[in-house]
Design the sequence.
């Protein structure tokens, strides 16, 4: 479904990603883990069209057989990709409902807005009584629900999640990851970027390890857990 080949991204003269190559299969829940500063957010923002690959580097992002690396940023959503960014980035002075409806601004999603909203509220029942409340007044966990719901309102075939557990309590993290698994089971492909390695590996079909802008390991969660260097570096075991 998604093939990334030799992706290189830099901030000015400072490289952030070096020759990153990986794949995500249709209906797969793929996790990319790594330490702070590894380039995880840079990678996911590039896949969402927010950042651009280094000009002339030859890197490719092939989604459903189409090279989308050169598309304008707003076309990534039309192509079927939606992102839940790190830090949620809601419109705090707008209502929860207005934030959710923004997610369905693409014409193909807009015509099914009511259906999508019903699905989001079934996934996150806690939001039913919050639709008229300002998003900025919600708890961190509820805001993350809105951020995920907003992305799902676009009816993506590929959902990108950047550090969804960041700053949240273990109980809320468990609830959110259960929701992510449900979205995956219902047919949406998911790419999860996460620093909480143990939680991420519990839900992933496969995982890659990103370190200093390079992919350094790949395998199933069980395969990675059997590697001593991975367990020591990321799980403290």
Sequence:
């Amino acid at each position: 479904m998604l093939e990334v080949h030799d992706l290189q991204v830099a901030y000015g003269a400072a490289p952030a990603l070096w020759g990153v190559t990986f794949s995500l299969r249709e209906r797969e829940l793929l996790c990319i883990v790594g330490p702070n500063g590894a380039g995880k957010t840079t990678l996911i923002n590039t896949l969402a069209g927010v950042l651009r690959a280094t000009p002339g580097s030859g890197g490719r992002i092939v989604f459903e057989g189409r090279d989308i690396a050169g598309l304008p940023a707003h076309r990534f959503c039309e192509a079927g990709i939606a992102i839940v960014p790190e830090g949620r980035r809601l419109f705090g002075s707008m209502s929860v409902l207005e934030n959710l409806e923004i997610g369905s601004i693409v014409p193909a999603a807009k015509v099914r807005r009511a259906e999508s909203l019903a699905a989001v509220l079934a996934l996150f029942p806690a939001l039913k009584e919050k639709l008229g409340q300002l998003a900025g007044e919600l708890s961190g966990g509820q805001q993350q629900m809105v951020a995920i719901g907003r992305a799902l309102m676009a009816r993506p075939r590929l959902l990108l999640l950047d550090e969804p557990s960041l700053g949240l309590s273990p109980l809320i993290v468990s609830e959110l990851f259960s929701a992510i698994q449900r979205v995956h089971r219902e047919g949406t492909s998911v790419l999860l970027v996460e620093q909480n390695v143990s939680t991420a590996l519990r839900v992933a079909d496969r995982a890659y390890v990103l370190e200093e802008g390079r992919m350094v390991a790949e395998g199933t969660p069980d395969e990675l857990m059997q590697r001593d260097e991975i367990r020591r570096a990321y799980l403290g075991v």
Summary: The longest helix spans residues 170-185.
